[in-house]
Design a protein that fits this description.
ten-stranded mixed β-sheet; alpha/beta; Rossmann fold; two-stranded antiparallel sheet
Length: about 300
């Protein structure tokens, strides 16, 4: 079973995505690695709860201690942009955020901070998304991001349209950070995943929308301080009316998760996954090709060692 087969062995039934039994899926259950073995570049998991999928994925990547060292200050950056409950898939799944926080602390992190520059009222977003409570219960600090004073200017010499940006101090003051977006439809960028999740670490998002959104998304990802991991939450997918969504009819239960250090690759895999829910040609998510052109990652998954797992 090749990578494309893995991403295509899905079918949508009503409002719920179900994995169809097939010879390909039987093979997937038995063959979990690509030929050649070696270091795993990207893990794609389907069919489990958020915590279980992450535990399996990070284990396949070598464990959290590969990315978090004792005594480090860590930021976990989910999407908390909207005043929506988890079932409406506007924000990253709180169970996933909590599990990542726990694993960072278990790996020896000195502290873990969670934040996002929200679109709706930040206190309502933090509370109603379930992320504030879940993160605190797991041992993290939760930091606001609604004041410009939290942000410091960062140069982006490799950017084409964006040459600098004000980035939240939590990112700049951390030793490492983990990018944890949710996969969902977006009215402007078509999809919001790991690359676009960077818009939640900057102050002036208006610049993006008025200066070629797809290019600016790629430009901000050229910043020197890159996430050590990109973990894409595809447990529930907002297939239409994103990024906010309108009702439960916009949401599909997909039970997926993607993880990689390569931000372009993980977003490419997630885009192909989304295309099984709703048609979304990869070329319509222009920041992927823009990111590859800036050499921040690759869209060519065939060049990577991808591990595909069905729980």
């Amino acid at each position: 079973m090749d990578r494309r087969d893995f991403l295509k062995t899905l079918a949508v039934t009503g409002a719920v995505m179900t994995v169809q039994r097939s010879e390909a899926m039987d093979i997937l259950a038995q063959k979990l690695t690509n030929a050649g073995g070696g270091k795993v570049d990207l893990v794609a998991v389907m069919g489990g709860e958020p915590e279980a999928m992450f535990r399996r994925a990070i284990a396949e990547m070598g464990g959290m201690k590969q990315f978090i060292k004792p005594g480090q200050k860590v930021v976990v950056k989910p999407n908390i942009g909207w005043d929506k409950v988890p079932e409406l898939a506007g924000n990253t799944n709180p169970q996933l955020v909590a599990e990542i926080v726990k694993q960072c602390l278990a790996a020896g992190a000195k502290e873990v901070t969670v934040f996002d520059h929200t679109c709706d009222d930040w206190q309502k977003c933090y509370k109603n998304s379930g992320i504030e409570a879940a993160a605190k219960a797991a041992g993290a600090k939760v930091m606001p991001a609604h004041l410009e004073s939290y942000y410091k200017n960062v140069s982006l010499p490799r950017g084409k349209r964006m040459k600098s940006a004000k980035v939240h101090e939590a990112i700049l003051n951390s030793d490492v950070w983990i990018n944890v977006p949710i996969l969902k439809n977006h009215g402007g960028a078509n999809l919001t995943i790991s690359m676009k999740n960077h818009m939640g670490i900057v102050w002036d998002r208006g610049f993006f929308h008025s200066n070629d959104l797809q290019q600016c998304i790629a430009d901000i990802c050229t910043m020197d301080k890159k996430a050590v991991l990109n973990v894409v939450d595809a447990y529930r997918v907002l297939k239409t009316n994103g990024p906010r969504g309108r009702s439960a009819s916009d949401v599909v239960l997909t039970k997926g998760l993607f993880i990689s250090q390569d931000i372009v690759a993980v977003d490419t895999a997630a885009t192909k996954f989304f295309n099984q829910v709703r048609e979304m040609p990869i070329e319509s998510v222009g920041h992927l090709a823009n990111g590859q052109a800036l050499k921040i990652g690759t869209m060519d998954l065939d060049k990577l060692n991808v591990k595909r797992i069905r729980l």
